[in-house]
Amino acid sequence: MHLYEVLKRPVLTEKSLQLADEQNQYVFEVDRRANKVQVKQAVEARFGVTVTNVRIINMKPKTRRRSLRQTAVRKTAWKKAIVTLAPGESIQLYEGV
Description:
Elements: H1 3-6, E1 7-10, H2 14-23, E2 25-30, H3 36-47, E3 51-59, E4 63-66, E5 71-74, E6 78-85, H4 92-95
Antiparallel strand pairs: 1-2, 2-6, 3-6, 4-5
């Protein structure tokens, strides 16, 4: 898998922005086939930072109700990575939000 296929998008929620401010941790949605080593290499190559720790979480699919007929729509499962950077480093993508 190519390094640019590993990271899909940053996860911008209140909790992820709080992690970035307080603990220097950034949250990304990653490819379901990616492992910790690939995520570390992808973040270091794409943003030019030093990664100290990577945690990966498999997010389960959720069922949502839609319309008056109560049709169930199932969201797909996805994988989330929480990346910890070395002290003093940051990712500029998160700074402007």
